[in-house]
Target: DJ-1/PfpI family protein
Amino acid sequence: MRVLGRGLVVLVALFLVPGVEFLVSARSFASYRYAPPAAGRLPAVAPPVHASGKPTVAIVVGNAGANVADTLVPYDVLASTGRFNVYTVAPERRPVPLLGGLDLVPDLDFAQLSRRLDGRAPDVTVVPEMPSDEDGDRRVIAWLRSTASRGLVLSVCTGARLVAEAGLLDGREATTHWYRLSGLQHAHPAVHWRRGVRYLDDGNVITTGGLLSSVDGTLRVIERLAGADTAAAAARTVGWRHYSPGAPARMPESRLSPSNAIVHLLNLGYRSKTTRVGVVLTGGVGELELASVFSPYAEVKAARTVAIASTATVRSRHGLTFVPRARLAGAGDDVDRLMVPGTTAAANPDPEIAATARRAGVPLEYPHRQPGFAFDPVLASMARTFDRPTARWTRKILEYPTAELGPSGPSWPWTPTLRLVLLGLAGVAALAVVRITARLITTGSLRSRTADRRADGSPGGGRNGLDEDKEEP
Model:
C-alpha cells in the first residue's frame, strides 16, 4: 500500500503542472478567439455604392463577430464575379472581430440595408458561424425570420445553428461542419441532418459543410443566379480546382480520430499560448488571401494571429474595411514571425515591412508569391514550420479536399510534446524538492530535540542517562 501511495503521488506530480498549463492555455485561447476590438469611434468609411439591377447579397456578421473564413471566402468568390452587390451587414455598424483577431467594419447595419433595398429582402443572405451571444443571436435570428427568409439563404459551416434556430431548416435536409453535426442533431431534431456532402440545395435554403465547403455552396448560388459559366469563371479566378457543376461533390464522412485529438490537445495546451504570428495587412489584399492566413492557425488553435498595419484602416481588394490591432512600427517585437498575405504585396514588397522583420529578428514570409488557391501555401508553411500532422489536421478541419504540403516538415508536433514532457518533469522535480526539504526539516527537528534532552539530563543524555556533571553515589 505504501508503494502504491507513493506511485500515485508521483503520477499526480507528473500530470499536475501540465494539466494546469493546459487549462490556463485553453481558457486564454477561448478568450482570444473573438476578443472584442478596442473601444473607439467608427472609422469614417463610406459604404460601397449600390448598383441597381444587380442581385444583392448580405453577409451577416453578428455584433460579437463571425468566423473569418465563413465570412471572407463567400465574399471574395461572389465579389470576384462583378455580378452582385455584396455587403457585410450587422445589427449595428461598428467594428466586429473575425476569428483570429481581424477586425472588420461592416458595410451596413440592418436598417441601412433595408433603406437601400426600399424594404425588400436581399436576394441572398449568407450566414457564417458566429460566436454565441444572447442579444446578438436574438437580433440576427429575428432578422433571418422576418427579412432574409424572403430570399435565398446560404448557411455556412455552423452558421446552420442560427438558421435552424430561426426555424428555417425544420423538415428540410441540411448539413454543417462534421465536427459540430452531432450537437446540432441533438439541439434541432426536426432537421434532417446529413454527413459527407459539401452542400445541400433545398429550394430557398442552401446549407454547406465546414469552412472551405463554402466555396462550393457559394458557386451553387452563382449558378442559380448568374449561370454555370459565371460560376466556373469564379472558381478559376480564386483557384478552386474542385468545382462540381450542378451538383454537390461527395466527401468523406469525417470524424475525430485519436491522432487528431492528440495533435489538437498538444497544440492547444502547449503551443498556442506562446506562438504568435503577425499578419501584415496591406491595401488591395484579397479577402480570401486574408482568410487563408488567419483561419488555419485559429481553427486548430495552433497559434495566435495579430493584425498589423502601418495605417489606421486597410481596404481590401473588393472594398472591405479592416482595423489593425497593432501598428507596424515595433510590432515585430511581440511576434515569432511576420506573414504578409496577398499576391499584390508579394509582387511589390514594402521595405518598411522588411525593416521591421530585420529589427525584430523574426522571419518574414510572403505566402502568395505564386498563383493558385490561397490556402495551399499557408498549409505548406504550417507543415514546414510546425509539423505535418498539424497541417493535415488543419486540412481536415477546413474540409479542404487536397493540399500540397510539400516535402519538408517534422513528422510529429515535437515542440509542444517536449514542452509537455518538461512540464511533467518539473512537477516531479518539485515533488522531489518538497520531499527532500521535508526530510531535512524532520531530521533537523529530531537532532534538535535530542540535543535538548542531553542538555537538560533527560533519558539518553550523559552516562547511563545521568548528567555528566553529577557524581555517582
